[in-house]
Every structure is written in C-alpha cells, then in structure tokens.
Specification:
CATH architecture: Beta Barrel
Strand content: over 45%
Order of helices and strands: EHEEEEEEEEEEEEEEEEEEEEEEE
Distance between the termini: 45 Å
Number of domains: 1
CATH topology: AttH-like fold
CATH superfamily: AttH-like domain
Length: 330
C-alpha cells in the first residue's frame, strides 16, 4: 500500500502557541476552535463578525444537479437549495432565504456534522447519525430527503491557510454514496446513481472576500479547485481513492458572459480542463451593510488529470459539476 501524498490531519487547528497549523492534510481536523489564537484588541472585537462557517452539499446525476447549503456569516445566517434539470436545461427550483441578524443558521464546529437553517420560506437540516449524514430540505418548490454514507468516504482534504484576514480552514470530500429522493414541481427524482460531495468551511475572513471555484466528482476521479482567498491550499485531485495536492490554478472565463466556455489549468501541468456551462444561477444583492455578487454555473468538464506519482493521464469526459465566481462583502 502506498503512503498518502498528504500528511495526516492534526487533531486541532492551532499549535501549542495558539498559531494556525497551516497546510494541506488528509483526514478530519477534530477540533475546529480558534479561541486560543493570540489576537490584538481590535481583532478580538471583530472576531464574532468575521467568523464564517458554511456547509454545502452537491448531488450530481446524469439528469439533474442539486445544490444546497447552510451559511453562518457571524452576524446573520442564510441558506439556499436548488434543482437543475439537465434534460430540460433549466432550474426547476432555486430557493434562498436570509435569517434575521444574530439568528437563523447554526453550524457545528465539526466538518460534515450538524447544521440547520429554518425560515417560513426554506428549511435545511444536516443531521449526523452514526456513520451517515441525513439531509432534509423543505420549501414550497423543493423537498429533499437524502442519506449520505460517511463510512466509506474517500480521503478527505483538510486545509488551513492564512486566507485574507487571520486564518481559514476547510474540509472537502470526494465522491460519496447517497440514497433518497427529491420532489420538485410534481416530479420525484431518485437519488440512486447520484454522486454526493460535501464542503465544510470554518474561519476568520476579511469583510471583502472573493474567489473562483470548481468542483466535480465521480467514483474514480474528482477535483476541488480555488483561485482566491485560500491561495492553492484547497487545490486537490482524487484519483482511484488517492488524494493529491495541486499547485495554483488559473480560471480563464468571461465574467460578463459566464455561459461561454471556461478554461481551467494548474501551474504544475497536472490538470487541464474545459468547462461547458449548461445552466446558471446568479444573485446580485446589496443590503447596504452587506453585498454579494454570485455566479454559479452548472455543466460538464472535459480534459485530463495527471497522476503525480505515475505520470499516467486520466481523461475527464462529460464530468458533471459546477464553477463559481463570488464576491462577498460580509
């Protein structure tokens, strides 16, 4: 058995001096607590407002893509859930809700664990149960009941980076087995045959934060790519249940025409992809004290990933996933 390409995740975010353990790891960081980090008085006062957490689930299938998340931005919370019909090429449901200040979202300081958001418009709940995660969505346009198998999870990427203020951590899963169903506009969508992936983030970020992101997974290969506040810290590929780090990546696309093809490549040459959008979610919001410009394109990736150890090239063909261009003032 070959040794992991990444070191095992530490048990906590901070070392004995209270400093972040920056790096890329394989596995779960059990204790996600920033409290012992030495801060100046202004930093301590700002920390509750700068502490950001979110948990995101993607379900990709030949016929549809489902995405949902619970988001805690420190001073308020939010959630969204959508279902994109790939056969029709359109969103059948796209529901989002914001909480009241200091109320709305609750996310555990533990990856792939409990998270919930509830409002009259939308309810999203992640509930851990032994070696699985139950996910429920309730809204007028979309209902979902999913069960994710965490017992046979491929290697999990855990990363800690300086980010753009104090520090940030994230956990990304590979392809997970899922069962259940989604109901949308009188149709029932079976989750059999879908591929699930999870994204959990927890950190202390600047008021202005932006990123480009891409993610897609199959049972044999996948990737998580980001250009922005985390630098190259969360760039990784999964090949045959092995997890490998990537260098910095570059996103070439037209923000004014995001339905045109995107080109994504890594500086180390291990990844070269073209993303062809099939649909788009976007949101521009200005709440005076906060704002967001958000584009998430849904579509297919084609190209290749290269095994950094053997040099063998793995073809990526019509792999379903998402890209994102996001600016937040939060």
């Amino acid at each position: 058995m070959s040794l992991p390409a990444l070191p095992a995740a530490p048990d906590c975010l901070l070392d004995t001096r209270g400093l972040p353990r920056h790096g890329r790891y394989q596995g779960h960081i059990a204790h996600l607590d920033w409290q012992a980090m030495p801060l100046s008085l202004p930093q301590r006062l700002l920390r509750p407002l700068r502490h950001k957490r979110w948990q995101y689930l993607a379900l990709t299938h030949a016929d549809y893509v489902i995405g949902l998340a619970v988001v805690d931005v420190g001073w308020t919370g939010a959630a969204f859930a959508y279902l994109f019909d790939r056969c029709q090429g359109r969103l059948l449901a796209d529901v989002a809700a914001d909480g009241f200040p200091l109320h709305g979202a609750h996310i555990a300081d533990q990856a792939f664990a409990a998270a919930r958001f509830a409002s009259r418009k939308l309810s999203v709940r992640f509930s851990p149960q032994e070696r699985r995660l139950t996910v429920e969505v309730q809204s007028a346009r979309l209902q979902l009941a999913a069960h994710l198998d965490l017992a046979s999870t491929p290697p999990v990427l855990a990363a800690i980076a300086p980010a753009n203020w104090l520090a940030h951590s994230t956990h990304k899963s590979g392809a997970l087995h899922v069962s259940g169903f989604a109901d949308c506009q009188g149709q029932r969508f079976s989750l059999d045959g879908a591929v699930a992936s999870l994204d959990y983030s927890n950190g202390l970020l600047a008021r202005d934060t932006d990123w480009r992101w891409a993610s897609a997974h199959s049972p044999t290969l996948g990737f998580n790519l980001q250009q922005g506040y985390m630098g190259e810290a969360e760039n990784a590929i999964w090949l045959q249940d092995q997890l490998y780090p990537l260098s910095a990546v570059r996103f070439d696309f037209d923000p004014q025409q995001p339905m045109h093809a995107w080109q994504i490549c890594s500086e180390d040459g291990l990844l070269q992809l073209q993303f062809t959008p099939e649909g788009l979610r976007e949101k521009n919001q200005n709440l005076l004290i906060a704002s967001s410009r958000y584009i998430q394109a849904i579509g297919r990736f084609d190209g290749y990933l290269t095994d950094p150890r053997s040099g063998s090239r793995h073809v990526v063909q019509a792999l379903c996933g998402v890209t994102e261009d996001h600016y937040a003032r939060w």
